[in-house]
Amino acid sequence: MRRSIALILGIVLAVPQVQADPPSSQSIADAVDKSLWGDNLNSAIAVTDDAAFLRRVMLDIAGRPATPEEIRTFVTNESTSKRTEKIQELLKSEDYGQNWAHYWRDAIFLRATNMRAGIVRGDFEEWMAAELNRNTSWDKIATQLMTATGEVNGNGQTALIFAHEGTAEEVAAEASRLFLGIQIQCANCHDHPWDSWKRTQFHQFTAFFPRVSVQRKRGSDKVFEFEITAVDQDRSRNPIASRFLLTRVDKNRDSAITEAEAKGTPLARVFSGQAMQFIDKNGDKKLTIEEIMTAEPPERPGRGSVEHYMADLNDPGSEGTKIDPKFFLNNRKVPTGLSDAERRAMVSQFVTSKSNPWFARAIINRVWYEMNGTSFYTPVDDIGPDRECVNEETLKILTDGFIDSNYDLKWLVETIATTRTYQRRSDSSAEGFAKSEPMRLRSDQLYESLCQCLGVSELPLRSTQRGPQGMLQRAGGGRGEFARIFGFDPSTPRDEVTGSIPEALFLMNSPMIARLMSAPGAGSLVSKVSMSSLAEDDVVAELYLTMLGREPSTREQAIAREYLSKTTSFRAGIEDLAWALLNSAEFSSRP
Amino acid sequence: MNLQIFDAITSLRRGFVRRRFLATTAGLLAAGHATSLRSLMAEQAETLRKQGKSMILLWMPGGPSQFETLDPKPGHENGGPTEAIATSVSGIKIADNFPKVAQQMKDIAIVRSMTNKEGSHPRASYQLHTGYVPAGSVKHPSFGSSVVQQIGNLTGELPSFVSVGATQGAGFLGMEYEPFVVSQPGQLPDNVALQVSKDRFQQRSDLMKKLNAEFATTGSKLLADNHEALYGKTSRLVLTPEIQTFDISSEPQSLRDQYGDSNFGRGCLLARRLVERGVSFVEVRGGNWDTHQNNFEDCAKNASEVDPATAALISDLRDRGMLENTLVVWMGEFGRTPKINPREGRDHYPRVFSMMMAGGGIRGGQVYGSSTPDGTEVASDPVTVPDLLRTISKTIGINPDHEHMSPQGRPLKVVDGGKEIAQLLG
User: Fold this and answer.
1) Angle at A259 between CA A303 and CA A240, to 5 degrees
2) What's the sign of the alpha-carbon dihedral A435, A440, A441, A443?
3) Minimal Cα distance from B223: which residue of A?
4) Angle at A379 between CA A377 and CA A384, to 5 degrees
5) A546 in B contact zone (CB under 8 Å)
6) Residues A549-585: pLDDT tens digits?
7) Which of A179, A426, B39, B192 is surrounded by the most beta carbons within 10 Å?
8) Which of B115, B123, B223, B293 to mutate to test the interface with A (most CBs of A within 10 A)?
9) Rounded to an integer, what distance in angstroms lies between the CA atom of residue B37 and that of residue B34?
10) What is the ipTM of this complex?
11) 3-class secondary structure per residue, A441-491
12) Is A271 left (phi over 0), alpha (psi -120 to 50) or beta?
């Protein structure tokens, strides 16, 4: 008799879910502002100008800067609700899902311990963008990532498990880090030195994942086809063949099977495969019935094992202690012997449960950081009950609202973007949450910025690396190749991401960028701007608008004017200015 | 007299050391100290020795078979058809795939008793590069980044950590210690050629600096400062004549022939040129040793590029008097199964495998540790990954117990555990 997953989960999680109306973004945004600045909000923080707001909100939500046309339309619009309308418009655009799918692709894959993980990067991007655009709730997305099974290729939700080859410890550690913000894996080898997590708790959490197996797709001859399956039966009790079959194959009845005897039977493939090594123990190229019945495939991480064993640190070679699943945040009793599907469904329920605030707090902390440059906990993926929270009350308001919204991600982004705190003016000298410093763009945001100002839909970049690695890289197209130079893990605090020489070399000297920017023909950026029969100052202004999304200040106009007066030609001067803007620190950041 | 000493120092090592030495000397002499040059030399010796050290990692991706490289077992069924050949050190034999390396044996120490547990490429490769098994949540710095952090010249015109082919990065140590990755060894790196004249590049850069100064006041000083540092470093690289170090075409044809007409050969020659110019850590990847099938053919093919280049590198370093200060390490992520599979291949085997080292204070002409006659176990003197990295640390003069602070605020040593193998040290 098979237990029903629903039944088990029903018993364990008897929390009734009452549907309430989600709170409005505006009301929570107001409460957030009030919690941070009190009643004197208007005097406490200044609001940024329209152009800077537009650049910020477009890069944050849509992942690309505004075009000069969009800037003009927005700045000259006199509606008092235009910012709210812009936020909502951007959340409806497909760009929203794309942008945040890129974010999650990097968050997951740049920590991958499986180098082949790249083969599902594109599938993940597509899947995640679709989920985000149809506004699938965050608990459902997280659940899909934790419970994914079946073919890897074409199934983006297999990303998290495939990125770690199904290795239980790694999948557990990453699920905890990404969805709860809790770095429980630090307790993998010893009790956490200053957190309350015990080593056993990490292994109990890991025990939800041991039956996951990642292997080459059965019957596939392609190098890059994998699948996720469950190992619900002890393989040692599941011999490769039955005694009955063996007696049929063993034609000469000598209790040993030769390759010739096996020909044409299911045992033939054993002789040609790697399994021969552990089955044919005495290496005589004949398989005795005894050898076949007792063969135990070597256990390998990521190949699934029925139970999880915590290694004995004093005797690493031994089997270790069998550990049953338990979730460190609720410590509920979990029935033993659950199947893989039951275990993973249960852990997803536990992690995403509304009675567990860390699931909501982790994603709020991340999104808030990405949009504001400040965070309740730093780094974004190291939170939890043992960490100190900045502005606890504000986080509580957002957490309650987000849970009431049923983990509605668009609601979360809209609420944050609606706060006056988000719309505050850049001020790097301020303290705490008032501080607002331009943030370095992620690889995809910079890629979009370059494409947009250079007037192309893709940069013609192509990896020249040979072999399978090159194949994987070329599959990512110009964007993937660009990310190989500019990519970084978005969980890393931004002030630790300082740029690399190949990045600077690329922007400085890439012949391709130089051509798109300033080739003499009609298509290049400089040609378009300088042929527009504008006055010199206006050409400079147009260049600023196209490249930085704003007009130059008086001082910047003066710097440009002085520079242009000394160059051999106006055109050459504008080429230099375009180069300087593209290479400037501002180009690679958002206000 | 003075000049001779200075020149000796310069030839020992790079310009910045010399400049510092001159400055110190001038200062002391001006101050009227009666310090003799000899004692001055002694004062500087320790620093010089440390800063003079470099490491070249010849990385054999895929996990080279010990049976077909450094630990042949002719006559045993696990040994396959591979023969053992004599080397320049009597009593030491290596696989017939490496005739040229065999001639350099006097400078080489072979370890035949490496032992480890990781049998998957990404995990083992990560571990051999960082000293730690991968953990999704901590990005450990590669050993090269740790070396550069301790003894690299971070203000030189060339980057102090160069890798021919992608490798493990600096992890949480940050961008400053990231390897500069070269994909086409022997020629100039991508995008180093200026698109305009030097003068115009300078003018543009000055304009950019002015704009960044504006941004520093109205936007972000932090980003502007980082940007300035990065563009300074990069401009130095594109403007310095030393960039030509990356272009090996000026080397005599006969020497280039010795290294061989292969990416690995060119990478090794580049490594020597970089070390000569003061680069502290260079990695070069060679071959694909993941020989699950056709092990014997493929090992021979890999060796046809790796053998001449490795041997040429060692002899070239020796000829130039650089071997003493340059440690060459040859290894992959694990070894391969003693048993030959039905596809004439060998599978992953971390339990016992081999590696070799030369120069940099390593005592050559020896084999350390051994495997059992059938090659399935370590027979004597097992060496773990931390043992190896600790020994390397000692010989190139970095502190393996130096603690990095991980982003989680947890102190992590450069090498966690392990013990120095004194017998390997000269």
Assistant:
1) 35
2) negative
3) A585
4) 50
5) no
6) 999 999 999 999 999 999 999 999 999 999 999 999 9
7) A179
8) B223
9) 9
10) 0.85
11) CCHHHHHHHHHHHHCCCCCCCCCCCCHHHHHHHHHCHHHHHHHHHHCCCCC
12) alpha
Residue A243 to residue B8: CA distance in whole angstroms: 79
Rounded to a whole number, what is the distance in Å from the CA of A581 to chain B's nearest CA?
7
The DSSP annotation for A53-99 comes to HHHHHIIIIISSPPPHHHHHHHHH---TTHHHHHHHHHHHSHHHHHH
Nearest Cα residue in chain B from A277 = B341
Tens digit of each residue's pLDDT, chain B (426 residues): 333 333 333 333 333 333 333 333 333 334 434 444 444 444 444 444 455 799 999 999 999 999 999 999 999 999 999 999 999 999 999 999 999 999 999 999 999 999 998 887 778 999 999 999 877 567 899 999 999 999 998 778 898 999 998 888 888 887 678 888 888 899 998 899 999 999 999 999 999 999 999 999 988 988 998 898 889 889 989 999 999 999 999 999 999 999 999 999 999 999 999 999 999 999 999 999 999 889 999 999 999 999 999 999 999 999 999 999 999 999 999 999 999 987 788 988 999 999 999 999 999 999 999 999 999 999 999 999 999 999 999 999 999 999 988 877 788 999 999 999 999 998
If contacts are CB pairs under 8 Å, which of residues 567-586 in chain A contact chain B? 567, 576-577, 579-581, 583-586
Q: Do B231 and A576 touch (CB under 8 A)?
A: no
- Among residues of chain A, what percentage have pLDDT more than 90? 63
Number of H helices, E strands in chain A: 30, 9
Q: How far is CA B62 from the centre of its chain?
A: 18
Instruction: Looking at the complex, report in whole angstroms how far the Cα of residue B210 sits from the nearest Cα belonging to chain A.
Output: 8
**What does the pLDDT read at residue B305?**
97
Query: If we measure between CA atoms, which residue out of A355, A390, A344 comes closest to residue A160?
Result: A344
Q: Contact A377/A387 with Cβ under 8 angstroms? A: yes
Separation in Å, CA of B264 to nearest CA in chain A: 14
pTM, to two decimals: 0.76
Strands A439-440 and A321-323: unpaired
Query: With the C-alpha atoms ordered B17, B20, B21, B22, is the resulting torsion angle positive or negative?
Result: positive
Provide the residue type at A187 as one letter: A
Q: Considering only alpha carbons, which residue of chain B is nearest residue A193?
A: B410
| Ordered alpha helix ranges (H), A93-198 | 94-109, 121-133, 138-147, 159-162, 168-175
pLDDT band at A19 (very low <50, low <70, confident <90, very high): low
Query: In chain A, what residues touch B178 (CB-CB under 8 Å)?
Result: 500
What is the rounded distance in angstroms from the CA atom of residue B72 to the CA atom of residue B57? Answer: 23
Q: Determine the number of helices (DSSP H) and then strands (DSSP E) in chain B.
A: 12, 16
pLDDT-derived band of residue A20, with 50, 70 and 90 as boundaries?
A: low
Element housing B330 (H / E): strand B326-331
Run of H or E including A398 = helix A392-404
In chain A, residues with a C-beta closer than 8 Å to the C-beta of B233 are 501, 504
How many residue pairs from chains A and B have C-beta atoms closer than 8 A?
Answer: 189
Using CA atoms, how far apart are residues A54 and A70, in angstroms rounded to an integer? 9
Which residues on chain B are in Cβ contact (under 8 Å) with A271? 342
pLDDT tens for A207-253 read 999 999 998 888 777 767 899 999 888 755 455 566 777 777 888 88
Contact yes or no for A563 and B342 at CB 8 A: no
Q: Is the dihedral of CA A421, A426, A430, A435 positive or negative?
A: positive
Q: Which residues contact B320 (CB under 8 A, 6 or more apart)?
A: B272, B276
Compute the nearest-CA separation of B115 from chain A (Å).
Answer: 13
> What residue type is assigned to position B160 of the chain?
S
